[in-house]
What does this fold into?
Amino acid sequence: MISIRRNHIWLLPSTHEDSIMSHLRDMAATAGMTLQDRRGERQEQAPPPEGELVVVDHPAAVGGLDPHQWIIVHTRSFEDSVEAMMAAAITFRPREAVSKLSTWLAFANYLTLHGAAPVDDLSTVVNAVMGAEPAVSHAKDDRGTHALSHYGSLPVAANATATWTPDIFSYTLGQEREGGSPEIDLIGRGRILVYGPDITLTSGEWKIEAEFDFLVFDDVVDLRFDWGHAEDTTTGFYKIEKAGRYKIEMTRSWLTNQTAELRLWVQHGMLHGQIHFLGAVVSRIA
It folds into this structure.
């Protein structure tokens, strides 16, 4: 039997969980260990007896132990993880699943920074169990194109970026909180137009670059952008005087893991005009 240094495994959501578990059981048997399947549990885990590995699948079960005792099996595809969360009824809407998954990944990043071992290649699990130093973990499939691609490696890279496409934002419709689309009719009172996506960012300074096309029809429009968490935001005011494509850049420091939201407002009533919101890119700059 090998010497066990890390005795808890957290499986991030995957539609391939059954095959992962089969691999882990075979690995444990070959190494003379016993695998305890505690997926579905939500309480913090106690240290297992010598020679046992414990597998959990929810962050509520991860805690109360030194992070050095944890191995994190990183997802190879964010889309796959979102699908798995919806199949498990953790949430039922893709946009909400992306937001929830971001909080789990932020916690996984915290554990990694404090000694947990992230792996995305199951052949390295035995080395992690024996206490090998954590290596940077990279998923292979959709890391560069997803709204969560800033978590494409654990720990999060100093220059991490993610693309937030228009579909993960929310849009008002008139005075209604939801129901709109990225093609926004400005007619009506001053109001919030775009908000979201409530994706968790890790500590550091993050820049957002948002783009939109503007059709104003010989009028001047005052826009407001908020970038931050809840009411703790950086705010910018912009006067738009002609049609065209615009990009705004804003930065804000996150002191801890918190959700991030971009909000776009029109500051006054409009008789005509339209905005086509094109999404945003977020980048960690410090």
In short: The chain has two domains: 8-157, 163-284.
